[in-house]
Amino acid sequence: MSPPPEPLLPLGLRLCGRRVVVVGGGPVALRRVGALMAAQASVTVVSPTIVAALEDLAQRHLIDWLARPYEPGDLHHAWLAMACTADAAVNARVLTEAEEARIFCLRVDDASHASAWMPATGRSGRVTVSVHADRDPQIAVALCGAALEAVETALRQHPQRDDRHRAQAASSGRVILVGGGPGDPELLTVKGNRALGEADVVVVDRLAPLTLLDGLREGVEIIDVSKIPHGRFTPQEEINEILVSRARKGRVVVRLKGGDSFVFGRGMEEVLACKEAGVPVEVIPGVTSAIAVPALAGIPLTHRGLSQGFTVVSGHAAPDDPRSTLDWESLARGGTTLVVLMGVENLPLIVGALLEAGRDANTPLACVMDGALPSQQVVLTTLAAVSSSGAPLELRSPAVVVIGAVGAFAEV
To answer: What residue numbers bound the domain in which 135 lies?
Structure first.
């Protein structure tokens, strides 16, 4: 009969600025170093050779690398040690010397005698879930995932903040600009999702991932400031005032946009309005539709032998419009992939300007509509076809237009 598992005391280690020594330089060490860097530990890796990612971190002075075998004394001043080599004898020596120095030590190849174990870990906002399963990593990971889902559900159902947090919010509201990505809620960043969980007010427009609104906690104020082409329109000055006024009432205001706030999203105008009003403001970047939507349609904006770069432009002002500041002749001759946002209405005029400037009439033109949504549709044509017959009949807004040889990769 095997002995019962040794009882553990689960602890959360505060390693910020504290020295941690990782012995070994392979993929396992890389995984541990990533976790330690997230904890802002001062990491020293000891190994004659290391994987390329660790070498890059060392060259950027984000970690220290001792490019030699482990030696006695390497654990000096360490708070924690990790034996991550493929050599059992080396790992055993590290563990023994850590025990003698009273330094907790993880051993990746044999945790049975190690003084510390690495749990399966998941995070949701300010909550960290860690699961030990008597050294069974598969069970630990499965339980951690289930526990994290339960925590996220509980946070949505019971969103009450503690008194100290409420007092802080009441004394100073703030604005957070969140780039919501191209439309698929799963393409929202983790940090953006965390911000939504803290929101008292969400100011949203029509191209944001609207399904995220259903997951907000009860009591969150939702303000729709959509700007519909040739339809209802919320002036930018009014949006700025909403952000500032709600924040001045001590509320956490999330400005949820589609794509990225700084790519034709007028995000900087909102940042400046907040700063001028003395309101704290944070920007959380989003996955821009200019890059993500073509990728979701199978289009690489760069490809060896076809395109060495790409240019993103707004098509809301036609080439002959006095408001347009673009040099369409240079864009036509530039040789890079051209990505046009907000260009549905002016597409024939844009194509005409490119052809007049010398762009090859057989250049592929791909239109990706409703990118990242279940209704996504792709139309592939050419500059010549648009010039002779007009924009494709199926074309509708919102759409991302890709002009260039790489457009031929579109999955229609």
So the answer is: 122-157
